[in-house]
Amino acid sequence: MNAQIERAVEHFRALLEEQLGRAERMENASAQEKTANPKTVVGVVGGDGIGPIIVNEAARVLEALLADEIARGTLELRPIDGLTIENRLARGEAVPAEVLAAIKGCDVLLKGPTTTPKGGTLESANVALRRALDLYANVRPVRIPEEGVDWTFFRENTEGEYALGSRGVELPGLAMDFKVITDAGTRRIARAAFEFARKNGKKNVAIVTKANIMKKTDGKFSAICHEVAKDYPEMEVEDWYIDIMTANLVNPAIRSRFEVFILPNLYGDIITDEAAQLQGGVGTAGSANLGDRYAMFEAVHGTAPRMIEEGLGDYANPESILRAAQLMLNHIGRAEAAAKLGKALEICCETEKKVAVTGDRSGATCREFGDYLLKTLQTLS
Ligand code: NAD
Fold first, then answer.
1. Looking at ligand 1, which residue's alpha carbon is closest to its atom 5?
2. What is the DSSP track for 230-277?
3. Do 62 and 327 contact (CB within 8 A), yes or no?
4. What value, to the nearest 5°, has the Cα angle with vertex 289 and ends 286 and 295?
5. How many helices (H) and strands (E) in the chain?
6. pLDDT at 37
7. How far apart, in whole angstroms, are the C-alpha atoms of residue 103 and residue 105?
8. Which positions ≥6 away from 120 have C-beta within 8 Å?
9. Predicted local confidence at residue 31, as pLDDT
């Protein structure tokens, strides 16, 4: 046992050194300037399971919305192959090197969900991409207009429980994982959230942790967020624990008072799915992963393996990936196209609802919904 403890201590030392190095690089990094590129390249990644089916519909919609720009050559929709579970397993790489190189040749990505096997050592493609592209802010808007709910979640995307999630230690009868919070990593997510709040006229920012239990890591996260908050004196800044905040979101008496949330990685992962469900299901929300150089836009849900097993893949709902496409259009400065897509989604999913996708044979297929949305777009000037 002693030898095993020694090995674990050595492993821990190596992790500490590596993470200190990462923190130092973040401290020293000035925000990377985007080089002005005459052409915006949007990488389109299908992913696994229902991914290629829903991404295909989103690509059809983007082709229609951006037809003029594509024809002029100022924007390219570039399919990127190889981010499949088969290829990733065969290569033993979360994101195979040539796929990552292709992705780095794009400005932004529209990505379908990817499978993460339980157990084993293959890391989640998303976690690897967030790290490789330094996508530190996971931003998810959630709206329930009839209740006045308009939330924006800023989930820290590169640290917390996910930084070393595949590199814990296991001794006979015991397993330990590690959670990492850095000053620099927290500062940049807090800055992104407060800047968003200021630019969008928001007044309330909730810092959500479990700092009463995770005293070192969540304690630091909260303290650094408060430090950043000093630059935004107009904001009402509140500390909440994740457990009570999870309850708050299902409490109609108070939930509309919240506006912007800042959370460490794991709590953000969980609570944003809860929030999406309140809006109408994980199929109805999109998500943005933002860094200083790259950005990636995704559906909130996963690959829906059971739908594929049951032969229901064609009945997958593309709404979530279309909402992600809308976020992407805004991010790359195509506000008009984003607004048009938003309007068409409102008509197709909220008001007119002539074609409803239910996720099974009782509803429309993904393609039928895509056709409906494309027709609706044509009616909008
Ligand atoms: P899931 O989101 O795939 O499925 C949860 C439930 O929602 C299932 O009942 C599914 O049928 C349904 N569902 C999901 N998307 C739907 C859609 N577009 N239309 C209709 N119904 C839909 O979650 P899971 O089962 O926990 O995960 C499955 C796989 O997806 C896992 O390998 C997981 O790692 C992966 N995953 C990937 C991402 C990502 O790449 N961003 C996110 C979450 C999960």
1. 304
2. TT-TTSEEEEEEHHHHHHHTT-TTTGGG--EEEE-HHHHHHHHHHHHH
3. no
4. 110
5. 14, 12
6. 74
7. 5
8. none
9. 60
Q: What's this model's pTM, rounded to 2 decimal places?
A: 0.85
Other CB atoms within 10 A of residue 76 CB = 16
Q: Is 93 helix (H, G, I), strand (E, B) or coil?
A: coil
Strand order in the sheet with 40-45: 75-80, 40-45, 108-111, 295-299, 286-290, 137-144, 149-156, 260-263, 204-209, 236-241
**C-alpha distance from residue 11 to each of 7, 91, 174, 177 (Å):** 6, 25, 16, 12
CA 117 to ligand 1 centroid distance, Å: 13
Instruction: Determine the straight-line distance between the first and last CA of the chain, rounded to whole angstroms.
Output: 72
Give pLDDT, residue 119.
79
Where the chain has pLDDT below 50, the residues are none
Pocket, ligand 1, Cβ cutoff 6 A: 50, 54, 113-116, 126, 282-283, 298, 301-307, 316-317, 320, 359
**Ligand 1 centroid to residue 242 C-alpha, Å:** 23
Task: Report the C-alpha gap between 149 and 169 in whole angstroms.
Answer: 42
Q: Extract the tokens encoding 275.
A: 């929030």
What's the gap in Å between 188 CA and the centre of ligand 1? Answer: 29
Q: Give the residue among 229, 188, 181, 221 at the shortest CA–CA distance from 205.
A: 229
Going by C-alpha positions, the residue among 74, 128, 142, 184 that lies closest to residue 285 is 142
